Amino acid sequence: LSLSLGEGLNVAVGLYSTAVAARKPSAIRLYRETNEPVRSKTRTFHTQTGSLLLPSEIKKAQVYGKKQIVMEKDEVDAIKKFDDPGLFLIGFKPMEKLKLHHHIRPSVFIYPEEDEVKGSACLFSALLKKCSERNVFALCRSIFRRNYPPKFVALVPQMEEVDEGRVQISPPGFNVIYLPYADDFRTLDPPRCPSATQTQVDKMKEIISKLRFKYRSDAFENPVLQQHFRNLEALALDMIAPEDIEDLIMPKVDQIDQRLGPLAEEFKDLVYPAGYNPEIKPAPKRKMADAGGGAEKKPKVELTQDELKAHFQNGTLGKLTVPVLKEACKQFGIKTTGTKKQDLIDALNSTLAS
């Protein structure tokens, strides 16, 4: 991507993910006879004639003001496009303005690409050094892919760190922090619960101090991934059963009980009433039926033909729910191949128009 610092001043940068969650590899479909990978193709057919539709024959539409506006694919792409992919510098702000709750998704890392634009590394290094000295971050507008909506990001400087053996621990560059829009902030109404007493707080502090240990992320393997690889190994080697795995994230109950001793029971006596048993669940409350008695009836989803025609003439079929549209198709004897809302509306429009 290009990092635009001003008119005619661009720096070529590359995006990197410093930490990615390990996931199971996606499944590969194989042909049954030759065991070779297969490629899937998607084709669109007309629901009434069954003829093959070309990409140029497929259009998209939206109802505005009781009128159906039909748009070409190029017009839809033009609406989605805000600008070319890249980063555009807006300004600088002190690091105190960046809060922890502004972090809405995993960040990425940018580093200069000297091969793309000569001088990018020198200018990028100067920008990084000044941002770090003045303790500020760069506020940018970002579009990382074509036809993607713009995002505001904060470029947080990160200087190079090396250990005693001059081995790099962290590279120099900017961490790209995605910032929320004003619409992303919500007003929460937290539940009001009784506050803990100082005695309860002190007892919980003792429990936490007893259960503390040095955490290392590389000491815990993902049991789902390990089981997946064991299954593949057993399948490849024609084993009767896969090898057992050790689930390292399961709590060690015996060691926990030995460390805590009587602290757990003391905390339980301070918080819960006498004779409380967490294993016993309260019986679920039954919902009271209406005054007339009997079970609640589902709302009626049928409409008369006159009501459906009125919706068709007003262009408000899109406001009806999928169950109502399905019942309407049954009334007119329309056979629909799909269950999508737009397919049901198109089938009703073609029938009512005729």
TrEMBL record:
<protein>
    <submittedName>
        <fullName>X-ray repair cross-complementing protein 6</fullName>
    </submittedName>
</protein>
<dbReference type="InterPro" id="IPR006165">
    <property type="entry name" value="Ku70"/>
</dbReference>
<comment type="similarity">
    <text>Belongs to the ku70 family.</text>
</comment>
<feature type="domain" description="Ku">
    <location>
        <begin position="50"/>
        <end position="196"/>
    </location>
</feature>
<dbReference type="InterPro" id="IPR006164">
    <property type="entry name" value="DNA_bd_Ku70/Ku80"/>
</dbReference>
<dbReference type="InterPro" id="IPR003034">
    <property type="entry name" value="SAP_dom"/>
</dbReference>
<dbReference type="Pfam" id="PF02735">
    <property type="entry name" value="Ku"/>
</dbReference>
<dbReference type="InterPro" id="IPR016194">
    <property type="entry name" value="SPOC-like_C_dom_sf"/>
</dbReference>
<dbReference type="Pfam" id="PF03730">
    <property type="entry name" value="Ku_C"/>
</dbReference>
<dbReference type="InterPro" id="IPR047087">
    <property type="entry name" value="KU70_core_dom"/>
</dbReference>
<dbReference type="Pfam" id="PF02037">
    <property type="entry name" value="SAP"/>
</dbReference>
<dbReference type="InterPro" id="IPR027388">
    <property type="entry name" value="Ku70_bridge/pillars_dom_sf"/>
</dbReference>
<dbReference type="InterPro" id="IPR036361">
    <property type="entry name" value="SAP_dom_sf"/>
</dbReference>
<feature type="domain" description="SAP">
    <location>
        <begin position="317"/>
        <end position="352"/>
    </location>
</feature>
<dbReference type="InterPro" id="IPR005160">
    <property type="entry name" value="Ku_C"/>
</dbReference>
<keyword id="KW-0238">DNA-binding</keyword>
